[in-house]
Amino acid sequence: MLNDVERRIVNEITIDEPWALVETFAQLRREKPHEVNRGMDCLIDRLARLGVPATTYVPEIYLSQPGRAHVKLDGQFLRAKPVAFSADARAGVTGRLRPWPTTDAQDCIVVGKGLPTPELVNEAQRAGARAVIAANPGADIHWGTCSDVWGSPGLADLERRTRIPVVGVNRPDGERLLTAADAGTMVELVSEIDDGWFPQKIVVVDIRGSQEPEKFVLLHGHLDSWDVGVGDNAVGNAALLEIARILYLHQDSLRRSVRIAWWPGHSAGRYAGSTWYADRFALEIEEHCVAQINCDSPGCRWATDYLNIACMPEAVPFLAEIIKDMTAQTMQARRPARAGDLSFNNIGVTSYFTVSSTMSPEIRAEKGYYPVGGCGGNIAWHTENDTIEIADRDNLLRDMKVYALAVLRTANSALLPFDWRLAAREFLQTLALYQQSCGALFDLAPATSAAQALLQRLEELYAAFQAQTIPLDRANAMVTMLGRILIPLNFTSVPRFLHDPAVTIPPLPYVAIAGVIATLPAEKIHFAQQDLMRGCNRLVAALGQAGAEITRCLAQRPAVLPPNGD
Which residues form the Peptidase M28 domain (predicted)? Predict the structure, then answer.
Protein backbone atom coordinates (compact mmCIF):
# COMPACT_ATOMS: atom_id res chain seq x y z
CA MET A 1 0.00 0.00 0.00
CA LEU A 2 1.17 3.51 -0.81
CA ASN A 3 1.67 5.84 2.13
CA ASP A 4 0.41 9.42 2.05
CA VAL A 5 3.67 10.90 0.77
CA GLU A 6 3.99 8.31 -1.99
CA ARG A 7 0.38 8.69 -3.05
CA ARG A 8 0.61 12.48 -3.21
CA ILE A 9 3.82 12.48 -5.26
CA VAL A 10 2.85 9.67 -7.63
CA ASN A 11 -0.55 11.24 -8.29
CA GLU A 12 1.13 14.47 -9.42
CA ILE A 13 2.89 12.68 -12.28
CA THR A 14 1.29 13.72 -15.56
CA ILE A 15 1.82 12.74 -19.18
CA ASP A 16 1.85 16.11 -20.97
CA GLU A 17 5.43 17.24 -20.34
CA PRO A 18 7.07 13.86 -20.97
CA TRP A 19 4.90 13.19 -24.02
CA ALA A 20 6.01 16.51 -25.50
CA LEU A 21 9.62 15.30 -25.24
CA VAL A 22 8.66 11.99 -26.88
CA GLU A 23 7.11 13.93 -29.78
CA THR A 24 10.20 16.12 -30.10
CA PHE A 25 12.60 13.19 -30.06
CA ALA A 26 10.42 11.37 -32.60
CA GLN A 27 11.60 14.02 -35.06
CA LEU A 28 15.19 14.21 -33.85
CA ARG A 29 17.78 11.58 -34.74
CA ARG A 30 20.11 10.83 -31.81
CA GLU A 31 22.59 8.48 -33.45
CA LYS A 32 25.68 10.42 -34.57
CA PRO A 33 27.76 12.25 -31.92
CA HIS A 34 26.56 15.73 -32.92
CA GLU A 35 22.95 14.49 -32.95
CA VAL A 36 23.29 13.10 -29.44
CA ASN A 37 24.70 16.39 -28.16
CA ARG A 38 21.82 18.22 -29.81
CA GLY A 39 19.40 15.89 -28.01
CA MET A 40 21.17 16.61 -24.72
CA ASP A 41 20.85 20.35 -25.39
CA CYS A 42 17.11 19.88 -25.92
CA LEU A 43 16.90 18.09 -22.59
CA ILE A 44 18.94 20.78 -20.84
CA ASP A 45 16.59 23.47 -22.17
CA ARG A 46 13.52 21.61 -20.90
CA LEU A 47 15.04 21.06 -17.47
CA ALA A 48 15.88 24.77 -17.26
CA ARG A 49 12.35 25.74 -18.26
CA LEU A 50 11.02 23.47 -15.52
CA GLY A 51 13.36 25.07 -13.00
CA VAL A 52 15.34 21.87 -12.39
CA PRO A 53 19.11 22.52 -12.02
CA ALA A 54 21.38 20.18 -13.99
CA THR A 55 25.10 19.57 -14.40
CA THR A 56 26.60 18.83 -17.81
CA TYR A 57 29.81 16.87 -18.30
CA VAL A 58 31.54 16.58 -21.68
CA PRO A 59 33.93 13.61 -21.63
CA GLU A 60 35.52 12.13 -24.73
CA ILE A 61 34.25 8.59 -25.22
CA TYR A 62 35.02 5.97 -27.85
CA LEU A 63 32.26 5.43 -30.40
CA SER A 64 31.70 3.31 -33.50
CA GLN A 65 29.58 4.82 -36.25
CA PRO A 66 28.14 2.52 -38.92
CA GLY A 67 27.72 3.94 -42.42
CA ARG A 68 26.64 2.15 -45.60
CA ALA A 69 26.85 -1.54 -46.42
CA HIS A 70 25.78 -4.12 -48.96
CA VAL A 71 26.38 -7.72 -49.94
CA LYS A 72 26.82 -8.52 -53.63
CA LEU A 73 25.45 -11.95 -54.57
CA ASP A 74 25.31 -13.15 -58.19
CA GLY A 75 25.62 -9.58 -59.44
CA GLN A 76 22.74 -8.38 -57.23
CA PHE A 77 23.16 -5.93 -54.33
CA LEU A 78 21.49 -6.98 -51.08
CA ARG A 79 20.79 -4.32 -48.46
CA ALA A 80 22.83 -4.64 -45.27
CA LYS A 81 23.66 -2.72 -42.11
CA PRO A 82 27.18 -2.54 -40.70
CA VAL A 83 27.48 -3.71 -37.09
CA ALA A 84 29.10 -1.22 -34.71
CA PHE A 85 32.68 -2.00 -33.66
CA SER A 86 33.25 -4.41 -36.53
CA ALA A 87 36.12 -3.73 -38.92
CA ASP A 88 35.77 -1.20 -41.71
CA ALA A 89 35.54 -2.79 -45.17
CA ARG A 90 34.65 0.08 -47.46
CA ALA A 91 37.19 -1.24 -49.97
CA GLY A 92 35.28 -4.51 -50.08
CA VAL A 93 35.94 -8.07 -48.95
CA THR A 94 35.43 -11.07 -51.24
CA GLY A 95 35.15 -14.64 -50.11
CA ARG A 96 33.38 -17.95 -50.42
CA LEU A 97 30.17 -18.22 -48.40
CA ARG A 98 29.95 -20.82 -45.67
CA PRO A 99 26.94 -21.51 -43.43
CA TRP A 100 27.62 -20.91 -39.74
CA PRO A 101 28.44 -22.88 -37.71
CA THR A 102 30.95 -24.67 -39.90
CA THR A 103 34.12 -26.68 -39.50
CA ASP A 104 35.71 -24.87 -42.45
CA ALA A 105 35.58 -21.09 -41.94
CA GLN A 106 39.17 -20.24 -42.88
CA ASP A 107 39.22 -17.25 -45.26
CA CYS A 108 35.47 -17.59 -45.85
CA ILE A 109 32.56 -15.23 -45.32
CA VAL A 110 30.23 -17.02 -42.92
CA VAL A 111 26.48 -16.44 -42.75
CA GLY A 112 24.46 -17.48 -39.71
CA LYS A 113 20.95 -17.03 -38.39
CA GLY A 114 20.20 -14.48 -35.68
CA LEU A 115 21.72 -11.27 -34.39
CA PRO A 116 25.48 -10.61 -34.51
CA THR A 117 26.32 -11.25 -30.85
CA PRO A 118 29.90 -10.90 -29.58
CA GLU A 119 29.93 -14.63 -28.88
CA LEU A 120 29.05 -15.49 -32.51
CA VAL A 121 31.49 -12.99 -34.01
CA ASN A 122 34.38 -13.89 -31.70
CA GLU A 123 33.94 -17.58 -32.44
CA ALA A 124 33.84 -16.98 -36.20
CA GLN A 125 36.89 -14.76 -35.97
CA ARG A 126 38.83 -17.42 -34.05
CA ALA A 127 37.82 -19.94 -36.73
CA GLY A 128 39.51 -17.79 -39.36
CA ALA A 129 36.46 -16.26 -41.03
CA ARG A 130 37.10 -13.28 -43.25
CA ALA A 131 33.72 -11.66 -42.45
CA VAL A 132 30.36 -12.43 -40.82
CA ILE A 133 26.85 -11.93 -42.18
CA ALA A 134 24.05 -12.17 -39.61
CA ALA A 135 20.71 -13.19 -41.11
CA ASN A 136 18.26 -11.34 -38.86
CA PRO A 137 15.03 -13.12 -37.89
CA GLY A 138 12.57 -10.69 -39.49
CA ALA A 139 11.78 -8.51 -42.47
CA ASP A 140 13.84 -5.64 -41.06
CA ILE A 141 17.52 -5.41 -40.14
CA HIS A 142 18.34 -4.53 -36.55
CA TRP A 143 21.22 -2.21 -35.76
CA GLY A 144 23.56 -3.47 -33.08
CA THR A 145 27.12 -3.97 -31.92
CA CYS A 146 29.37 -7.00 -31.91
CA SER A 147 32.05 -5.83 -29.49
CA ASP A 148 32.42 -7.41 -26.07
CA VAL A 149 34.52 -4.47 -24.79
CA TRP A 150 32.47 -2.67 -22.14
CA GLY A 151 32.82 1.11 -22.35
CA SER A 152 35.67 3.04 -23.92
CA PRO A 153 38.58 0.61 -24.34
CA GLY A 154 41.80 0.72 -22.38
CA LEU A 155 45.14 -0.52 -23.64
CA ALA A 156 44.40 -4.08 -22.57
CA ASP A 157 41.14 -4.01 -24.52
CA LEU A 158 42.69 -3.10 -27.88
CA GLU A 159 43.61 -6.65 -28.80
CA ARG A 160 40.03 -7.76 -28.08
CA ARG A 161 38.51 -5.49 -30.71
CA THR A 162 36.75 -7.17 -33.61
CA ARG A 163 39.14 -7.48 -36.55
CA ILE A 164 36.70 -8.58 -39.27
CA PRO A 165 33.73 -6.84 -40.92
CA VAL A 166 30.26 -7.81 -39.74
CA VAL A 167 26.92 -6.89 -41.31
CA GLY A 168 23.30 -7.77 -40.80
CA VAL A 169 20.75 -8.60 -43.50
CA ASN A 170 17.04 -9.30 -43.24
CA ARG A 171 15.51 -12.75 -43.18
CA PRO A 172 14.53 -13.06 -46.89
CA ASP A 173 18.02 -12.03 -48.04
CA GLY A 174 19.55 -14.15 -45.29
CA GLU A 175 17.74 -17.22 -46.60
CA ARG A 176 19.09 -16.53 -50.10
CA LEU A 177 22.60 -16.24 -48.67
CA LEU A 178 22.23 -19.42 -46.63
CA THR A 179 21.19 -21.29 -49.77
CA ALA A 180 24.15 -19.81 -51.61
CA ALA A 181 26.43 -20.79 -48.73
CA ASP A 182 25.46 -24.44 -49.14
CA ALA A 183 26.86 -24.19 -52.65
CA GLY A 184 29.98 -22.27 -51.59
CA THR A 185 29.09 -19.24 -53.75
CA MET A 186 31.48 -16.26 -53.88
CA VAL A 187 30.15 -12.94 -52.52
CA GLU A 188 31.47 -9.44 -51.98
CA LEU A 189 30.78 -7.51 -48.79
CA VAL A 190 31.18 -3.74 -48.35
CA SER A 191 30.80 -2.09 -44.94
CA GLU A 192 31.66 1.39 -43.67
CA ILE A 193 32.63 1.89 -40.01
CA ASP A 194 34.17 5.00 -38.44
CA ASP A 195 35.57 4.59 -34.92
CA GLY A 196 37.10 7.29 -32.72
CA TRP A 197 36.96 9.53 -29.66
CA PHE A 198 34.16 12.10 -29.52
CA PRO A 199 33.13 14.71 -26.94
CA GLN A 200 29.68 13.72 -25.69
CA LYS A 201 27.45 15.47 -23.19
CA ILE A 202 26.19 13.75 -20.03
CA VAL A 203 23.38 15.48 -18.13
CA VAL A 204 22.94 14.84 -14.40
CA VAL A 205 20.30 16.17 -12.00
CA ASP A 206 21.01 16.03 -8.25
CA ILE A 207 17.97 16.25 -5.97
CA ARG A 208 19.14 16.46 -2.37
CA GLY A 209 17.47 14.55 0.41
CA SER A 210 16.70 16.12 3.75
CA GLN A 211 18.12 13.55 6.22
CA GLU A 212 20.95 11.67 4.49
CA PRO A 213 21.78 14.00 1.58
CA GLU A 214 25.20 12.43 0.97
CA LYS A 215 23.56 9.06 0.18
CA PHE A 216 21.86 8.77 -3.20
CA VAL A 217 19.79 6.58 -5.50
CA LEU A 218 21.04 6.60 -9.10
CA LEU A 219 18.25 6.60 -11.70
CA HIS A 220 19.58 6.54 -15.24
CA GLY A 221 18.95 5.79 -18.91
CA HIS A 222 20.49 6.36 -22.33
CA LEU A 223 19.61 9.27 -24.59
CA ASP A 224 21.40 8.13 -27.73
CA SER A 225 19.40 5.84 -29.99
CA TRP A 226 19.44 4.27 -33.43
CA ASP A 227 17.68 6.71 -35.74
CA VAL A 228 14.94 8.45 -33.68
CA GLY A 229 14.52 5.47 -31.34
CA VAL A 230 11.19 6.32 -29.71
CA GLY A 231 10.63 3.06 -27.86
CA ASP A 232 14.37 2.76 -27.24
CA ASN A 233 14.77 5.18 -25.62
CA ALA A 234 12.87 8.46 -26.08
CA VAL A 235 10.19 7.15 -23.71
CA GLY A 236 12.85 6.45 -21.07
CA ASN A 237 14.27 9.96 -21.45
CA ALA A 238 10.78 11.36 -21.00
CA ALA A 239 10.19 9.27 -17.87
CA LEU A 240 13.43 10.53 -16.31
CA LEU A 241 12.46 14.12 -17.14
CA GLU A 242 9.06 13.83 -15.45
CA ILE A 243 10.47 12.08 -12.38
CA ALA A 244 13.14 14.79 -12.09
CA ARG A 245 10.42 17.46 -12.26
CA ILE A 246 8.25 15.84 -9.61
CA LEU A 247 11.00 14.89 -7.17
CA TYR A 248 12.61 18.32 -7.40
CA LEU A 249 9.28 19.83 -6.35
CA HIS A 250 9.14 17.39 -3.42
CA GLN A 251 12.79 17.18 -2.41
CA ASP A 252 11.86 17.99 1.19
CA SER A 253 10.02 14.63 1.23
CA LEU A 254 13.18 12.67 0.35
CA ARG A 255 15.26 11.07 3.09
CA ARG A 256 18.18 10.39 0.73
CA SER A 257 19.19 12.18 -2.45
CA VAL A 258 18.23 11.10 -5.96
CA ARG A 259 20.66 11.46 -8.86
CA ILE A 260 19.19 11.23 -12.37
CA ALA A 261 21.50 10.80 -15.37
CA TRP A 262 21.11 10.66 -19.16
CA TRP A 263 23.89 8.77 -20.95
CA PRO A 264 25.40 8.96 -24.44
CA GLY A 265 27.33 6.09 -25.98
CA HIS A 266 24.88 3.31 -25.14
CA SER A 267 24.32 2.00 -28.64
CA ALA A 268 27.39 3.15 -30.57
CA GLY A 269 29.72 3.06 -27.57
CA ARG A 270 28.80 -0.16 -25.76
CA TYR A 271 27.70 1.79 -22.66
CA ALA A 272 30.62 4.22 -22.89
CA GLY A 273 28.75 7.12 -21.24
CA SER A 274 27.67 5.26 -18.11
CA THR A 275 31.08 3.57 -17.94
CA TRP A 276 32.84 6.95 -18.01
CA TYR A 277 30.64 8.08 -15.13
CA ALA A 278 31.26 4.85 -13.20
CA ASP A 279 35.01 5.35 -13.63
CA ARG A 280 35.10 9.09 -12.97
CA PHE A 281 32.95 8.93 -9.82
CA ALA A 282 33.80 5.38 -8.72
CA LEU A 283 34.89 6.23 -5.18
CA GLU A 284 31.91 8.50 -4.57
CA ILE A 285 29.59 5.79 -5.87
CA GLU A 286 31.28 3.19 -3.69
CA GLU A 287 30.85 5.31 -0.58
CA HIS A 288 27.43 6.85 -1.13
CA CYS A 289 25.30 5.16 -3.84
CA VAL A 290 22.65 2.90 -2.28
CA ALA A 291 21.07 1.53 -5.50
CA GLN A 292 20.96 1.96 -9.27
CA ILE A 293 17.74 1.90 -11.29
CA ASN A 294 17.95 1.77 -15.07
CA CYS A 295 15.13 3.12 -17.24
CA ASP A 296 14.99 1.72 -20.76
CA SER A 297 11.96 1.31 -23.04
CA PRO A 298 9.09 2.02 -20.64
CA GLY A 299 5.61 2.88 -21.94
CA CYS A 300 5.61 1.04 -25.25
CA ARG A 301 2.68 -0.17 -27.36
CA TRP A 302 0.96 -3.33 -26.11
CA ALA A 303 3.41 -3.54 -23.18
CA THR A 304 1.11 -4.32 -20.27
CA ASP A 305 2.86 -7.07 -18.28
CA TYR A 306 5.79 -7.06 -15.83
CA LEU A 307 7.57 -10.21 -16.95
CA ASN A 308 11.31 -10.83 -16.96
CA ILE A 309 12.11 -7.84 -14.75
CA ALA A 310 15.85 -7.62 -14.15
CA CYS A 311 16.48 -7.53 -10.41
CA MET A 312 19.30 -8.65 -8.15
CA PRO A 313 18.16 -11.27 -5.62
CA GLU A 314 18.41 -9.08 -2.53
CA ALA A 315 15.87 -6.64 -3.99
CA VAL A 316 13.27 -9.01 -5.50
CA PRO A 317 10.62 -8.84 -2.72
CA PHE A 318 11.04 -5.07 -2.47
CA LEU A 319 10.51 -4.49 -6.20
CA ALA A 320 7.72 -7.07 -6.43
CA GLU A 321 5.78 -5.20 -3.76
CA ILE A 322 6.21 -1.92 -5.63
CA ILE A 323 4.86 -3.40 -8.85
CA LYS A 324 1.98 -5.04 -7.02
CA ASP A 325 1.08 -1.82 -5.20
CA MET A 326 1.22 0.20 -8.40
CA THR A 327 -0.29 -2.23 -10.93
CA ALA A 328 -1.80 -5.15 -8.94
CA GLN A 329 0.41 -7.46 -11.04
CA THR A 330 2.76 -10.21 -9.88
CA MET A 331 6.30 -9.50 -11.02
CA GLN A 332 8.46 -12.19 -12.59
CA ALA A 333 12.11 -11.49 -11.81
CA ARG A 334 15.17 -12.61 -13.75
CA ARG A 335 18.90 -12.34 -13.25
CA PRO A 336 20.18 -9.03 -14.68
CA ALA A 337 21.99 -9.58 -17.97
CA ARG A 338 25.38 -8.09 -18.75
CA ALA A 339 23.77 -5.24 -20.69
CA GLY A 340 21.69 -2.10 -20.36
CA ASP A 341 24.14 0.43 -18.87
CA LEU A 342 24.57 -1.67 -15.72
CA SER A 343 28.10 -0.28 -15.48
CA PHE A 344 28.20 -0.31 -11.68
CA ASN A 345 28.22 -4.05 -10.87
CA ASN A 346 31.96 -4.08 -10.25
CA ILE A 347 31.52 -1.41 -7.59
CA GLY A 348 28.83 -3.51 -5.92
CA VAL A 349 25.63 -1.46 -6.28
CA THR A 350 22.26 -3.20 -6.04
CA SER A 351 20.40 -3.02 -9.34
CA TYR A 352 16.81 -3.35 -10.46
CA PHE A 353 15.10 -2.67 -13.77
CA THR A 354 16.51 -2.20 -17.21
CA VAL A 355 13.42 -2.58 -19.35
CA SER A 356 10.12 -2.55 -17.47
CA SER A 357 6.76 -3.50 -18.97
CA THR A 358 6.52 -5.84 -21.95
CA MET A 359 3.83 -7.46 -24.04
CA SER A 360 2.47 -10.80 -22.87
CA PRO A 361 3.65 -14.06 -24.45
CA GLU A 362 0.13 -14.48 -25.87
CA ILE A 363 0.26 -11.10 -27.64
CA ARG A 364 3.75 -11.80 -28.94
CA ALA A 365 2.65 -15.18 -30.29
CA GLU A 366 -0.48 -13.67 -31.83
CA LYS A 367 1.64 -11.12 -33.70
CA GLY A 368 4.31 -13.62 -34.66
CA TYR A 369 7.04 -11.59 -32.95
CA TYR A 370 10.44 -12.93 -32.00
CA PRO A 371 12.31 -11.85 -28.83
CA VAL A 372 14.07 -8.47 -28.91
CA GLY A 373 15.93 -6.43 -26.32
CA GLY A 374 13.62 -3.45 -25.81
CA CYS A 375 10.62 -1.48 -27.07
CA GLY A 376 8.33 -3.52 -24.82
CA GLY A 377 8.77 -6.51 -27.12
CA ASN A 378 7.93 -4.63 -30.33
CA ILE A 379 10.19 -5.83 -33.15
CA ALA A 380 10.66 -2.23 -34.28
CA TRP A 381 13.53 -2.30 -31.76
CA HIS A 382 16.79 -1.01 -33.29
CA THR A 383 15.16 -0.34 -36.67
CA GLU A 384 13.84 2.66 -38.60
CA ASN A 385 10.34 1.62 -37.53
CA ASP A 386 10.91 2.62 -33.90
CA THR A 387 8.81 5.75 -34.37
CA ILE A 388 6.08 7.54 -32.43
CA GLU A 389 3.62 4.68 -33.01
CA ILE A 390 5.69 2.45 -30.70
CA ALA A 391 5.01 4.69 -27.69
CA ASP A 392 1.77 4.49 -25.70
CA ARG A 393 0.63 7.41 -23.52
CA ASP A 394 -1.28 5.34 -20.97
CA ASN A 395 1.44 2.73 -20.63
CA LEU A 396 4.09 5.43 -20.25
CA LEU A 397 2.11 7.17 -17.52
CA ARG A 398 1.76 3.89 -15.64
CA ASP A 399 5.43 2.98 -16.00
CA MET A 400 6.57 6.44 -14.88
CA LYS A 401 4.57 5.96 -11.69
CA VAL A 402 6.16 2.54 -11.13
CA TYR A 403 9.65 3.99 -11.55
CA ALA A 404 8.83 6.98 -9.35
CA LEU A 405 7.56 4.73 -6.57
CA ALA A 406 10.69 2.54 -6.81
CA VAL A 407 12.89 5.62 -6.47
CA LEU A 408 10.82 7.06 -3.62
CA ARG A 409 10.82 3.88 -1.56
CA THR A 410 14.52 3.33 -2.09
CA ALA A 411 15.28 6.89 -1.06
CA ASN A 412 12.91 6.92 1.90
CA SER A 413 13.22 3.48 3.49
CA ALA A 414 14.65 4.00 6.96
CA LEU A 415 16.51 0.68 6.67
CA LEU A 416 17.74 -0.03 3.16
CA PRO A 417 15.31 -2.62 1.77
CA PHE A 418 17.80 -5.25 0.60
CA ASP A 419 17.82 -8.74 2.09
CA TRP A 420 21.22 -10.38 1.69
CA ARG A 421 19.88 -13.65 3.03
CA LEU A 422 18.23 -14.07 -0.37
CA ALA A 423 21.58 -13.68 -2.11
CA ALA A 424 23.22 -16.19 0.24
CA ARG A 425 20.46 -18.72 -0.41
CA GLU A 426 20.91 -18.22 -4.13
CA PHE A 427 24.65 -18.83 -3.70
CA LEU A 428 23.89 -22.16 -2.02
CA GLN A 429 21.52 -23.15 -4.82
CA THR A 430 24.12 -22.24 -7.45
CA LEU A 431 26.85 -24.17 -5.65
CA ALA A 432 24.59 -27.22 -5.36
CA LEU A 433 23.94 -27.15 -9.12
CA TYR A 434 27.63 -26.73 -9.89
CA GLN A 435 28.54 -29.59 -7.55
CA GLN A 436 25.96 -31.82 -9.21
CA SER A 437 27.41 -30.97 -12.61
CA CYS A 438 31.06 -31.52 -11.76
CA GLY A 439 30.60 -34.55 -9.50
CA ALA A 440 33.91 -35.98 -8.29
CA LEU A 441 35.96 -33.73 -10.58
CA PHE A 442 36.03 -31.00 -7.94
CA ASP A 443 34.84 -30.58 -4.35
CA LEU A 444 33.01 -27.31 -3.74
CA ALA A 445 32.41 -28.17 -0.07
CA PRO A 446 34.63 -25.31 1.23
CA ALA A 447 32.59 -22.76 -0.72
CA THR A 448 29.31 -24.36 0.35
CA SER A 449 30.39 -24.31 4.00
CA ALA A 450 31.41 -20.67 3.71
CA ALA A 451 28.05 -19.76 2.14
CA GLN A 452 26.19 -21.64 4.87
CA ALA A 453 28.20 -19.87 7.56
CA LEU A 454 27.45 -16.53 5.91
CA LEU A 455 23.73 -17.29 5.80
CA GLN A 456 23.78 -18.10 9.52
CA ARG A 457 25.52 -14.83 10.27
CA LEU A 458 23.02 -12.98 8.06
CA GLU A 459 20.10 -14.52 9.96
CA GLU A 460 21.59 -13.13 13.17
CA LEU A 461 22.15 -9.75 11.55
CA TYR A 462 18.61 -9.41 10.24
CA ALA A 463 17.22 -10.55 13.59
CA ALA A 464 19.18 -7.67 15.12
CA PHE A 465 17.78 -5.32 12.48
CA GLN A 466 14.28 -6.51 13.34
CA ALA A 467 14.88 -6.02 17.05
CA GLN A 468 16.42 -2.60 16.33
CA THR A 469 19.47 -3.39 18.44
CA ILE A 470 21.83 -1.91 15.84
CA PRO A 471 21.84 1.87 15.28
CA LEU A 472 20.18 2.72 11.97
CA ASP A 473 23.19 4.43 10.43
CA ARG A 474 25.37 1.42 11.25
CA ALA A 475 22.73 -0.98 9.95
CA ASN A 476 22.54 0.83 6.62
CA ALA A 477 26.32 0.97 6.37
CA MET A 478 26.33 -2.80 6.89
CA VAL A 479 23.72 -3.38 4.17
CA THR A 480 25.77 -1.26 1.76
CA MET A 481 29.06 -2.93 2.66
CA LEU A 482 27.60 -6.36 2.04
CA GLY A 483 26.62 -5.23 -1.44
CA ARG A 484 30.16 -4.08 -2.16
CA ILE A 485 31.41 -7.59 -1.29
CA LEU A 486 28.64 -9.90 -2.51
CA ILE A 487 27.49 -8.29 -5.79
CA PRO A 488 30.92 -8.54 -7.46
CA LEU A 489 31.05 -12.20 -6.35
CA ASN A 490 27.85 -12.96 -8.23
CA PHE A 491 28.03 -10.62 -11.21
CA THR A 492 31.68 -9.98 -12.07
CA SER A 493 34.73 -12.02 -13.00
CA VAL A 494 37.40 -9.32 -12.98
CA PRO A 495 38.76 -7.23 -10.07
CA ARG A 496 36.69 -4.37 -8.70
CA PHE A 497 36.63 -1.07 -10.63
CA LEU A 498 37.39 -2.90 -13.86
CA HIS A 499 34.69 -3.86 -16.35
CA ASP A 500 33.71 -7.36 -17.44
CA PRO A 501 33.16 -8.05 -21.14
CA ALA A 502 29.67 -7.51 -22.54
CA VAL A 503 28.90 -11.23 -22.57
CA THR A 504 26.89 -13.46 -20.27
CA ILE A 505 28.28 -13.61 -16.74
CA PRO A 506 27.18 -16.84 -15.03
CA PRO A 507 26.26 -16.91 -11.32
CA LEU A 508 29.29 -17.06 -9.00
CA PRO A 509 31.63 -16.74 -11.99
CA TYR A 510 34.78 -17.58 -9.99
CA VAL A 511 33.63 -21.22 -9.85
CA ALA A 512 31.23 -21.33 -12.82
CA ILE A 513 33.49 -23.66 -14.78
CA ALA A 514 32.33 -26.36 -12.37
CA GLY A 515 29.06 -26.32 -14.28
CA VAL A 516 30.72 -27.41 -17.53
CA ILE A 517 33.94 -29.15 -16.50
CA ALA A 518 32.42 -32.60 -17.07
CA THR A 519 31.83 -31.72 -20.74
CA LEU A 520 35.44 -30.67 -21.42
CA PRO A 521 37.89 -32.86 -23.32
CA ALA A 522 39.92 -35.07 -21.00
CA GLU A 523 43.13 -33.17 -21.74
CA LYS A 524 41.59 -29.94 -20.36
CA ILE A 525 40.25 -31.31 -17.07
CA HIS A 526 43.38 -30.71 -15.03
CA PHE A 527 43.67 -27.14 -16.29
CA ALA A 528 40.06 -26.45 -15.35
CA GLN A 529 40.67 -27.89 -11.90
CA GLN A 530 43.45 -25.36 -11.37
CA ASP A 531 41.04 -22.56 -12.25
CA LEU A 532 38.46 -24.00 -9.88
CA MET A 533 40.91 -24.24 -7.00
CA ARG A 534 41.88 -20.59 -7.41
CA GLY A 535 38.30 -19.46 -7.96
CA CYS A 536 37.09 -21.40 -4.93
CA ASN A 537 39.76 -19.73 -2.80
CA ARG A 538 38.64 -16.29 -3.96
CA LEU A 539 35.01 -17.12 -3.26
CA VAL A 540 35.62 -18.58 0.20
CA ALA A 541 37.80 -15.64 1.19
CA ALA A 542 35.18 -13.08 0.11
CA LEU A 543 32.34 -14.94 1.84
CA GLY A 544 34.49 -15.10 4.96
CA GLN A 545 35.17 -11.37 4.73
CA ALA A 546 31.42 -10.66 4.61
CA GLY A 547 30.84 -12.92 7.60
CA ALA A 548 33.63 -11.22 9.55
CA GLU A 549 32.11 -7.79 8.89
CA ILE A 550 28.77 -9.03 10.24
CA THR A 551 30.46 -10.47 13.34
CA ARG A 552 32.20 -7.16 13.95
CA CYS A 553 28.92 -5.26 13.52
CA LEU A 554 27.05 -7.51 15.93
CA ALA A 555 29.84 -7.28 18.50
CA GLN A 556 29.66 -3.49 18.46
CA ARG A 557 26.01 -3.30 19.42
CA PRO A 558 25.50 -0.77 22.21
CA ALA A 559 24.06 -2.05 25.49
CA VAL A 560 21.21 0.48 25.26
CA LEU A 561 19.96 2.29 22.18
CA PRO A 562 18.44 5.78 22.23
CA PRO A 563 14.61 5.78 22.02
CA ASN A 564 14.60 6.54 18.27
CA GLY A 565 17.00 3.70 17.46
CA ASP A 566 19.65 6.11 16.15
Answer: 203-398
